[in-house]
Automatic annotation (TrEMBL), chain A:
UniProt KW keywords: Membrane
Protein name: Golgin subfamily A member 7/ERF4 domain-containing protein
GO biological process: protein targeting to membrane
PANTHER family: GOLGI AUTOANTIGEN, GOLGIN SUBFAMILY A, 7, GOLGIN SUBFAMILY A MEMBER 7B
Main location: Golgi
Residue span, Golgin subfamily A member 7/ERF4 domain: 21-133
Primary gene name: GOLGA7B
Organism encoding this protein: Oncorhynchus tshawytscha (Chinook salmon)
Listed Low complexity bias regions: 142-159
Family label: Belongs to the ERF4 family.
Keyword Membrane: yes
Region annotated Disordered, chain positions: 140-159
UniProtKB/TrEMBL annotation, chain B:
Region annotated Disordered, chain positions: 290-319, 534-560, 574-642
Regions that span the bilayer: 12-40, 46-67, 148-172, 184-210
Species this chain originates from: Oncorhynchus kisutch (Coho salmon)
The family this protein is said to belong to: Belongs to the DHHC palmitoyltransferase family. ERF2/ZDHHC9 subfamily.
GO cellular component terms listed in the entry, alphabetical order: Golgi membrane; mitochondrial membrane
Keywords for this protein: Acyltransferase, Golgi apparatus, Lipoprotein, Membrane, Mitochondrion, Palmitate, Transferase, Transmembrane, Transmembrane helix
Membrane topology: Multi-pass membrane protein
Protein name (Swiss-Prot/TrEMBL): Palmitoyltransferase
Entry GO MF terms: protein-cysteine S-palmitoyltransferase activity
């Protein structure tokens, strides 16, 4: 594992990832996409509980909306079937649109809330919707640590 | 040759799908050319268009079922499973709508498979809502393409019915011209469609049944919900609605990565510090002090990861002595960073142990286990053990690979144990020569037992430090001595405690010489709980865990963590990758190797009962690992044998 640094890191500060905290999926409602809102204790010292919980709840609501079975999804299916699924070449599905919205939301949250606290959320879609990866950056000016792991991509640095 | 074999396998995988495609397209084309014109004239002009539409539907669904990603879950990053690999068990339970569903750890993909997810061995990836791998479309059928597969089956059935009946009608009306081209072709088409109609109809009916019950083929075949409740079903109508109307879930692999920059620069904001958790700190002199600092907000990152790490593993089994272990952990946690206290503690433990037999042994093991735990966790988090390293205390080298987190304990302890176990064994001849470093010469011998350590001094003077001294931070001395020596826990029996104690004393003396400011005190330090500490320097921080924090989770006995912690007492791991394999045989397959050890029968799908870690299992483990490592003749269960003639060994070894 090579240590990668964040895109806009200043080298003299060289912030690196100290650890990663994973917020797991909540399967209590079935296989619909939900993440646990339980606050991980590892982040207790880095961020207020309510902020992270709000973020996760918002994400859950977005995913629920994306997976909602309703008129729009039905029409989408019928149209796709009628056009022998060629419509997928031209049109973006509703889920994909929601994913873009989610990605933008995560980006915004990262910029406003998490980056100032030395954290970084990774879009769950990059992890197969299994976890929300929270990268915890070292809280030091100079890293000088030999044990830092690679930085998560978080849709931010290249993978 | 694997390459040609793989190629052959890959080529052969295309045979069914090619056959299906050829048959489908070919037969239908012939039908349209030779039979449909007559049908259009005789029966109805709408026959050809309807057949054409149906045929296009069949083709479209067939194409989607063949080429669409079934919902492949990408492999987990290394960071994600780093911890889980070590500690977590093979199975994990989650509650889905009130029903306990078992999640299995996928050794190939390195995560716990979500519910209904399964690993396709043909395609070698995990698929969400895995149904089956269909050879006729040469693709996995899973969450994303199940509807296309189902619609393909339905439409194909209807198409075959249409083709068969049309062909039959034609034949019946042209019985006198059977030898003509048209009739012959129609006969061929009819026979093909008739031949494949039965299996296709059967499969369609089967999937209709599955949809009505809300099961996948995989679940039906494995009998998962035969007798129980299926938490994933939405009712017959709900399932059909879900099949047809649910939105198409996104692809997880090969997504376009959009790069956006987020600036992360210290200093970082911290949460409000108004939350004060009273921390009871027991001073060295026994005076309790209530520290009102929020423990989480302290800059001391040392104990946090330890606590966190100990918190994370889900306890799987009822722990044999949770209270005991917790008390040990609580008592010892604050000291893991300081070498002296640890040494002293081990000393004390050993001293304590040398008295009574069985229970202290247990106590000792548990205590040592807790040490291992703390060390392991601390180490894993990159916590330095500066005291340890600066004092040149250790370390044994962990074998290369990913074991350091797992096996240092076992391997290191083996040195001491094995040495003592077979005093008569030529491999273990105690050599009383001068230690290369400050270690007792006896331990030199230990190293040589598998000729692993060539005069290396660094076999950890105490098993306690093994966990602490993972591969990462090595003092120069320890770096010299990388090796993987087999553990001979089967020979632990008697002299372990004595040898450890002796070693501890030696190392403590060495350290004393080297460290300048060491306070010798604290005998009978109250926070040590059961034992006295002969010498330790004043602890810098809380020696007891703050009350607000969760107790460090005692090792779950179905986990590798417990294996590690108890490894000192007879776990027959090895320093090689195989050791991690064996250690994880009761948990999960290690990332790096799938060794024969895993298949040795130790592999348990579920959690191993905690008592099984005790001698009976240890008996099995040494035997399984012996195939790969030189092994001393196994003795009776090591930990219990410790209670044996300890005094005798003491007499022998201590001059």
């Amino acid at each position: 594992m090579s240590t990668e640094f964040h895109n806009l890191q200043e080298l003299r500060h060289s912030v690196s990832v100290a650890t990663k905290v994973f917020i797991q999926r909540d399967y209590s409602q079935g296989t619909t996409c939900r993440f646990q809102t339980k606050f991980p204790s590892e982040l207790d010292s880095r961020i207020e509980r309510t902020l992270l919980e709000d973020t996760v709840k918002t994400l859950n609501s977005y995913y629920a909306e994306a997976e909602k079975m309703g008129g729009q999804s039905y029409m989408e299916g019928c149209l796709a079937c009628a056009t022998a699924y060629l419509i997928f070449l031209c049109m973006e599905t509703r889920y994909e649109k929601m994913l873009k919205k989610i990605s933008g939301y995560i980006q915004e949250q990262n910029e406003k809330i998490y980056a100032p606290r030395g954290l970084l959320l990774t879009d769950p879609i990059e992890r197969g919707m299994r976890v929300i990866e929270v990268s915890v950056f070292e809280d030091r000016g100079s890293s000088g640590s030999s044990h830092s792991s690679s930085v998560s991509s978080g849709g931010i640095s290249q993978r | 040759m694997p390459t040609s074999g793989d190629e052959r396998i890959k080529a052969s995988a295309f045979i069914p799908v090619s056959t299906a495609a050829v048959l489908l397209v070919g037969s239908t084309t012939l039908f349209f050319v030779f039979t449909c014109p007559w049908l259009a004239v005789t029966v109805s002009t709408y026959v050809p268009p309807c057949s054409a539409i149906l045929f296009f539907l069949v083709l479209a669904n067939f194409t989607m079922a063949t080429f669409m990603d079934a919902g492949v879950l990408p492999m987990a990053n290394e960071d994600e499973d780093k911890d889980d690999d070590l500690r977590a068990p093979l199975y994990k339970n989650v509650d889905v709508k009130g029903v306990q569903v078992r999640l299995k750890w996928c050794a190939s993909c390195h995560f716990y498979r979500p519910p209904r997810c399964s690993h396709c061995s043909v395609c070698d990836h995990c698929v969400e809502d895995f149904d089956h791998h269909c050879p006729w479309v040469n693709n996995c059928i899973g969450r994303r393409n199940y509807r296309y597969f189902f619609l393909f089956l339905l439409s194909l059935t209807m198409h075959m019915v249409g083709v068969f009946s049309g062909s039959l009608l034609y034949i019946l009306h042209h019985q006198e011209d059977l030898l003509k081209l048209h009739c012959t072709v129609t006969l061929v088409v009819m026979s093909v469609s008739g031949l494949f109609f039965i299996p296709v109809l059967g499969l369609t009916g089967f999937h209709l049944y599955l949809v009505s019950r809300g099961r996948t083929t995989n679940e039906q075949v494995t009998g998962k919900f035969q007798g129980g409740v299926n938490p994933f079903t939405l009712g017959c109508c709900g399932n059909l609605e879900y099949l047809i109307c649910s939105p198409i879930s996104p692809k997880y692999t090969a997504r376009p990565i959009k790069k956006s920059a987020v600036r992360i620069m210290p200093p970082f904001l911290k949460p409000e510090t108004d939350r004060q958790i009273p921390i009871i700190r027991v001073r060295d002199n026994g005076v309790q002090r209530h520290d009102l600092q929020s423990k989480r907000l302290s800059a001391d990152g040392m104990d946090e990861p330890d606590i966190k790490r100990l918190n994370t593993p889900p306890p799987l089994h009822p722990k044999p002595d949770p209270k005991l272990l917790k008390s040990h952990l609580a008592a010892l946690e604050g000291h893991y960073l300081s070498s002296e206290p640890i040494l002293a503690r081990v000393d004390q433990q050993l001293a304590f142990q040398s008295g009574p037999m069985s229970s202290p042994h247990q106590l000792n093991s548990l205590t040592l286990n807790s040490h291992f735990l703390t060390h392991k966790h601390a180490y894993r988090h990159g916590n330095k053990l500066p005291a340890l390293h600066s004092e040149g205390l250790i370390s044994q080298k962990v074998s290369p690979g990913r074991f350091p987190p797992h096996n240092p304990l076992s391997s290191r302890s083996s040195f001491s144990y094995s040495n003592l176990v077979n005093p008569g064994d030529p491999n273990y001849l105690p050599q009383r020569g001068g230690p290369p470093l400050h270690y007792h010469p006896q331990f030199l011998t230990l190293g040589l037992d598998g000729s692993v350590l060539q005069g290396s001094p660094s076999h950890s003077y105490s098993p306690v430090f093994m966990g602490a001294l993972m591969h990462r931070d090595l003092s120069p001395q320890t770096l010299i001595h990388r090796e993987a020596s087999p553990i001979r826990y089967d020979n632990l029996s008697k002299s372990i405690v004595a040898s450890i104690k002796e070693r501890q004393e030696m190392e403590a003396k060495d350290r004393m010489l080297r460290m300048q400011a060491r306070s010798q005190a604290l005998y009978g330090c109250p926070d040590m709980g059961v034992y006295d500490i002969p010498s330790r320097r004043s602890l810098p921080a809380d020696s007891m865990r703050p009350p607000g924090s969760r107790a460090p989770t005692p090792p779950s006995y179905g986990s590798r963590e417990f294996m590690m912690s108890t490894g000192i007492l007879g776990y027959a791991g090895t320093r090689s990758p195989l050791s991690s394999a064996s250690s994880s045989s009761l948990t999960r397959a290690p990332r790096t190797s799938s060794s024969p050890l895993q298949s040795s029968g130790l592999q348990s799908k579920g959690r191993s009962p905690s008592p099984s870690y005790l001698p009976p299992d240890r008996q099995a483990k040494p035997s399984s690992s012996s195939s790969t490592l030189p092994h001393t003749p196994s003795s009776s269960s090591a930990p219990l044998c410790l209670c044996g003639s300890r005094e005798d060994i003491n007499m022998q070894l201590w001059e």
